[in-house]
Amino acid sequence: MNIIKNLLSLLFPSKKEAEEENTDMKYLIVGLGNIGPEYVGTRHNIGFRIVDELAQSAGAQWEDKRYGFIARMRAKNAQLILLKPSTYMNLSGNAVRYWMQQEKIELQNLLVVVDDLSLPVGTIRMKQNGSAGGHNGLKHIAQMLGTEGYNRLKFGIGNDYPKGAQVDFVLSKFSPEDESIIEKKAPICADAIKAFALSGMQFAMCNYNNK
Q1: What domains appear along the chain, each with residue ranges and CATH number?
Q2: pTM of the prediction?
Q3: In this prediction, what percent of the chain has a pLDDT beyond 70?
Q4: 181 to each of 86, 155, 187, how far by Cα in Å?
Q5: Which are the catalytic amino acids?
Q6: DSSP letter string, 78-135
Q7: pLDDT of residue 17
């Protein structure tokens, strides 16, 4: 009798069970950057730094997995899967697509954290879609997913460099003055990501853009 009851429960879950299952949402939070000690602390790796901040705030541990480093945490009823791709920036889409498929993540539950040259240092800009703007990591993600319609958190790294020196600039380290800004803004970014998972992108944009 119990076996039949359990089978019926699996086939026809109660309203309460269905609601409980649907409230436990999964999100993939991707911080973009390049692996290797020579890239630690560089402007192009601010995505890594922000997801590190988020993981640290929850006591989550990183594991070396296929295509990247993975950490898992919860924010109330949301499961956050944090990813730092190990593919190098130009092939970030391979890691994003693999982990979206592996964890069955819907496109609207993906958030990519990325550096932005067009924004002043420390400026936070959350967007639901948009072009790659010359960023190779975003370009490859769009190529692999077949769409530019994915959420992103852009973090300003400034653009104080002479003409032709963009590559050297993004691969350089922040100045002490910039570091003091980042130390204040990284925890705000972590809160913005939690807000995205718990309350949606519109709420996060209204409450954290330009904060």
Answers
A1: 23-208 (3.40.50.1470)
A2: 0.87
A3: 89
A4: 27, 12, 11
A5: 44
A6: EEEEEEEESS-GGGHHHHHHHHHHHHT--GGGEEEEEEETTS-TT-EEEES----TT-
A7: 46
